[in-house]
Amino acid sequence: MAKVTGFLEFGREKQPYRPVEQRLHDWSQVMRPWEAKTLNEQAARCMDCGIPFCHQGCPLGNLIPDWNDLVYRERWEEAIERLHATNNFPEFTGSLCPAPCEGACVLGINDNPVTIKAVELSIIDRAFAEGWVKPQPPAQETGKKIAVVGSGPAGLAAAQQLRRAGHAVTVFERDDRIGGLLRYGIPEFKMEKNVLDRRLEQLTAEGVVFRTNAHVGVNVEVESLRKDFDAVLLAGGSTAPRDLPLPGRDLRGVHFAMDYLTRQNRRLEGDQLPEEPEFSANNKHVVIIGGGDTGADCLGTAHRQQARHIAQLEIMPKPPGTRGGDNPWPEYPRVYRIASAHEEGGERVYAVSTKRFIDDGTGAVRAVEIVSVEVKQQDGRMSFEEVPGSTREIPCELALLAMGFVAPRAHGDQPAQSEADRPRQRVARQGLDDLGERRVYRRRHAARSVADRVGHRRRPGRCCQHRYLPDGSNRPACAARLSGSGPLSTLANDRFLRALRREAVDRTPVWIMRQAGRYLPEYRATRARAGDFLTLCKTPELACEVTLQPLARFPLDAAILFSDILTIPDAMGLGLSIDEGVGPRLAHPVRSAADVARLGVPDPVDDLGYVMDAVRLIKRELHGRVPLIGFAGSPWTLATYMIEGGGGDHDFKRAKAWVYSEPRLLHQMLEVVTRSVSGYLQAQRAAGVDALMIFDTWGGALAADAYREFSLQYMARIVSELGNAVPVILFTKGGGAWLEAIADTGCSAVGLDWTVPPAEARRRIGHRVALQGNLDPAVLRAPIPVIEREVAATLAAFGSAPGHVFNLGHGITPDINPDHVAALVAAVHRGAG
Q: CA 606 to CA 602: how far, in whole Å?
């Protein structure tokens, strides 16, 4: 937080703007910079709200309280580091975003919210002025080549992330200049194009290659993408505008808003365009149909072209001045807003529908016929009914259609109209699907705000990186900051990681499976506050709190992410619930070939993003104290839950029956689960974990040959795909018979349960991998002297050679006294020199 009492001392100030009479005579940015004192006070209003809902409201997950606090304390260079950790281009979002974060601000419950957007823009403006924004070329190249199709906010952000990961990136743009919506569509007075150009200079210096006038599927052959690139990321926007097919639509002077705005952008770029009087608002009555941001952009543009009169029409009724009862906090507030263009003049007409465009007798529009409408709700559906006797004409010599977008355009200038031409299907028409699903990533949700598009750059960029280029394991510099490490990347305590690398340590490191759990009263209190276990797992702030609880009690050498191994089946849509005293249940178990065919690989960022958010938050709160361990269940272990429908039957009758009666179907299922686990762990690695662990909890239930076929080979593949960026620990409960084979997977460490004598494990495996384990958890029920004796015996059995991490052979059970855990950790410290 910033100042403790700041929200009580200072009111919300409005962003300063240049005077209307001045700005109407130029195309320069309408906003003025804040005065230092006022900005400091605005940042100081960020309160100690406990759970910052602004994170949820922000499409990017910006670390808003962090940089508000840093601005208040005038630590500007650190503030830009925190801002860039989640946002490649804060100057775009700070200028253009509708600020849903402010709608979710906790202060907004009973006061005006913090001016988050203005602080964001001030940070990046200061950073550019001070020279802190510099190119960050990758430290090494991966040898992979990626094509990014589209150079709007999403394409540019994904290109930067992928380039910083070490891939060779080429951006294809069908227009003559780079920038997409940012270049052609956003008026200069909202964001001057030099703001875009300076970022493009940075990307070029980092090594991103740009190709303009390159329309993939038209003048760029799809076959060339097949031959020249390892992966293709589709980041095209939704450019087919929504039409209004009414009588008179073909009259001169009736145009789409983007055609009008783009022409003005081109003039300001210096293009010599032919005279098109019908596109000029000068001395005309202008009607803008559509009350959103694009309509406001048209309004400001028409003002600067010196229109005689401007009316902006909206079919919805005028919004209220404050939230209505059906629009509670922290939803985005549906309230009356005044953009800078509205301050400059024009008439806003609400609750009207356009009936027709009226001809002046020469083929040009002279008026628009409108009718008042009322909103009706019936069976949950909204409709608009005309008000009798309310039809009227308003003068119009230029009509601009600003009603949103429906899809990407098809070839040429014709919008994709049919059901088959929806955005995701349209790529097939240009042949891009021929590249193969494993090599094409389609950016979801084509029509988004600029903030959404920049925010989703990590989703296409990281998914392309982790799903399709698994061996290109370099983590982008921006993603490294995202982990929360930033300048704190050097750990204060790294003995756990050094032990996994079999390096000498001053004492044996210790962490404990299920160290954050029900045996801790503070965990039980947090769990009660969450209401249920899944909410606890899926709320990043609470998952962070629970992860850190054991570190507050015990001097452990690592934290492990608080989550659940069934997050993947849950993301697959199997209907996970966890009942008290019963355990996990899946409402839709996998019981047939049809069920297997329906399984899909979850997107680790879209579908499991709450886990990555938790990782980033934990890394930030750890502040470099100890490493963070991420984890997942093994494919076989997850498959047992998915087939059985829960965790109650540990005989796994159905799953083991598939081993012998449906082996091909089981392999088909394990293939999907393996891809899911691999992508999930790679996403955790990118979010910032320092080590990874695969829990093969039920591998020991398999016979020897079945274990190798249905469990071990899939874990080995995951280890291979993870590479060596972070250490990987494999743990098979009951896996003592296969220690050598587990070590041969390429993992960094083998986890041992209590059934494996440490000396035997060391004799069989040698020193080629580290060992983790392996005290029986039941020892914690014994008196403290017995615990101390057993700890000493375990340490002696492992010996003094490097490469040992002390742990239990499985997790702490809920009935354990925390004082006994403290005694265990203290005994390890005393005897682990």
A: 8
